[in-house]
Amino acid sequence: MSVLMATAQTASAQAPTLTPYAPATNGIVSQKFDHTLLYTGTVTRFSATGLPSGLTLNATTGRLSGQLNVAGSYHIVIYAFNGTAKSTPLTIDWTVNPLPEGTVGTYYALIDRHDWYNGGYGGSLRITVTKTGTYSGTITRGIHRNPVVGRLETWPGAIDPQGIFTVARRSPYTPLTIDFGLPLGGNSIYGTLREPNGDVIDLDGLKTYTSAGGTPTAYVGRWNTAYELQQEQRGNATYPQGASWATQTISKTGVVTWVSRLADGTSNTFSTDLLVGGGTLAHLMLYGYAGSVQGWQYYDVEDGTTVGNLGWVKSANYTRFYSGGFPLHYLTGTGARYTPPPTLNDMIFGIAAGVNNVSLTFTEGGLAGPYTQVFSLGARNTITFPAGAGNPYGIRMTMNLSTGIVSGSGTALDFIENQPTNSRNGTFSALLIPGREQAVGHFLLPASRASNSQILSGKLIGQEYFVDN
């Protein structure tokens, strides 16, 4: 009897009917999708075949949801069941497009300086986007460095892919939120960083040259750049008065290696990426996280020159080099591609070998006044300084023609006749800058002979010397 009743119930079960459905537009990789199937009748479960990667069907509710992973053409077949009674199939033919052209790749951005968010030291964001829309990388803000992982959100049509992630902070501080976008065809990144009800600061950057499909052959080589104070800081001893410099080598893979020296003597070697448009961005924490330098540099392969701008700040710390720190200020970079003399017999900058044909000029940095030392650049770029009274500062110098780096010292800088105790030991460093045909850099000199006196920075210029007729 029970078997007959079960058979009768099964026979009387009515198959549900699925309401026709098709997405209004093609999908796109990393798009979020959410649709609940409509039907008439009674449904006990749903099933589907041919779903795009990343989508799932809830067998109980009929909800299709997920984030699309793989581009392609999909033939989706869906059934609704009432017990064993099965609906006629709902078929959906749907195309999922790839991410917008140019989205995949590596991006590098600088984050604005902000006293609360990064101690006024700025920051950087580096992320790599995959073809599925996932991204990973690192965010740096002042002394903090955090990993980044997430997934882009995309929409059909001409809409920039967007990303959003949070960075945790220790209690009781709420997480920071970072939103960013990747402009269609722009090979760039823009965005903001904020906390709830707090200030909003910007981030801006570019895609790396190689991940945008470029071959950096034209950029390969060495580029020498001097970074100098802007007019309003010149003569103000609050700021190091010397010129900073960097020699940058660009590899065939687009890696930019910096060997740099700031005007207070701080040396750094680090690597960044060549970016779309022939530039590179740099963010570097200094002085045990008590300062930073941040900015950009561009290389012009047409005329072989460089331009740049670096923001530099230092907080007070216990050293002999500007222990009180100095405010944020900006250095203007100018330079050019550097090629060493091809043979030992070729003179740097085409200077004719001779006697008393080159000079070094020292200014600011605690000197009683500007001083110019003339010396000789002979055959094979041999350097000879005068002896005795002809070289009162006791200057010695070496020049690395492979890199263009100049270094030296003086045993009696700021020597004044009849005031021998005024002189001090000092050092200097500069870089050969083609186009300007100069060595541009800085010297470092204690303010006095006291062992704890502050060490000041002055400017150094080396160039061909002409005797006035």
TrEMBL record:
A Pfam family reported for this protein in Swiss-Prot or TrEMBL: He_PIG
GO cellular component term of the entry, any: membrane
Source organism superkingdom: Bacteria
GO MF annotation, one: calcium ion binding
Family matches, as SUPFAM superfamilies: Cadherin-like (SSF49313)
InterPro entries, per database record: Cadherin-like_sf (IPR015919), Ig-like_fold (IPR013783)
Gene3D superfamilies associated with the record: Immunoglobulins (2.60.40.10)
Protein known as: Uncharacterized protein
Organism expressing this protein natively: Brevifollis gellanilyticus
